[in-house]
Amino acid sequence: MKSKCTRREFLKDGAILGAATLAVSNPAALRADGPRTSAAPAGVARVVASANGLAAVQRAMELLQAGADPLDATVAGVNLVEDDPEDMSVGYGGLPNEDGIVELDASVMDGPTHSSGAVAAIQNIKNPSKVAKLVMERTRHCLLVGPGALRFALAHGFKEENLLTEKARLAWLEWKERLSDRDNWIPERNQNIPPGLAAAMSTYGTINCLALDDRGRLAGTTTTSGLSWKIAGRVGDSPIIGAGLYVDNAIGAAGSTGLGEANIMNLGSYAVVQDMGRGLSPEQACLKALERTAEGTRRTGRLSRPDGRPNYGLNFYAVNAKGEFGSASMFAGGTYAVHDGMQAAIREAAYLYDK
């Protein structure tokens, strides 16, 4: 049985919680299918991640139940995806920039200490999330970028690796050769794109992972290879604290995947956490952040379709200090991964627009 959250119900709930000022421009919006926000009994751990994080939430929960720190657990969880060459939006195997070079971004944030660390546009390091954690722990800085981030990683014993897999190289070459008929690149005649490659030709995927342990400690990690074929040096929202990740141990944690440019302009993860602090559920706060982002990009014009709706995908994930969790996507069909302390599962996300 599908459940629907209508605009009227959403605004009614928001009014009860003191958030009736939310302006919703889409009357058919704010619907959700499948399992909804769930609360945790006191002392029950939660792990929430983007849809590519099913193995990540399983690993993170195993570590939490063994007594690990939540930040260590989320980093270990996303490492599985960073190491997976089949996920072409994160770490090893991620799609490269326009020059054929893989550049990675990542951030971490620890709830109890309110500390954070991040790296951006780092090359040749498979696990940027680990480097981001070291930035938090071993420097007075919050963000290191490019060659400086690489030198910092090497100083701490990381080894340089070629992150461009053959599959990603072929995808980049196909894009390069078909980009223009006015340059000197020519695609192979009658070339057949390998199975699965066409779907990877353009992506801005990421993994976000959030954890709450049985002691009430929160943490989060976001890591990505960013927008495929991006201009060298482009940085998305993933390493920007407040955009791709934000944690307040007294309130909750939030993170995002999708088009970073849209999120950076609206600091969506920070907004989600602040709205949870005002009483909105994680799902409601995610929906409100999407509404705010859609309205903001509608004014810019560059990121909107002719009908005024966004021409990009964006997703938010959240868990509050009580253990309630939720997610919302800009368009219908979004999913996310959750471990509720009993099992890991993929759940349907709420959504702002049906199409």
Question: Could you say what the CATH architecture is?
Answer: 4-Layer Sandwich
Number of helices: 9
Q: How are the strands of the biggest sheet laid out side by side?
A: 5-4-3-7-6-2-12-13
User: Gap between N and C termini, in Å?
Assistant: 21 Å
* Mean pLDDT figure: 87
Largest sheet entry:
8 strands, mixed
CATH homologous superfamily label:
(Glycosyl)asparaginase
Task: Count the domains.
Answer: 1
Quaternary organisation: single chain
By CATH reckoning, the class would read: Alpha Beta
**Helicity, as a percent range:** 25-40%
Structural class comes to: alpha+beta
Low-confidence stretches: 1-40
Q: What series of H and E elements makes up the topology?
A: HEEHHEEHEHHEEEEHHHEEEEE
CATH overall fold name: Glutamine Phosphoribosylpyrophosphate, subunit 1, domain 1
Shape: globular
Radius of gyration: 20 Å
Q: How many strands?
A: 14
Structure description:
The longest helix has 19 residues, at 282-300. Helices cover 29% and strands 22% of the residues. Helix 3 packs antiparallel against helix 4 and helix 8 (268-277) packs across helix 9. With 355 residues, the protein is of the alpha+beta class. It has nine helices and 14 strands. The strands form two sheets. The protein has an eight-stranded mixed sheet with strand order 5-4-3-7-6-2-12-13. Strands 1-14-11-10-9-8 form a six-stranded mixed sheet. It has a single domain, classed as (Glycosyl)asparaginase (Glutamine Phosphoribosylpyrophosphate, subunit 1, domain 1). It is globular and about 60 Å long.
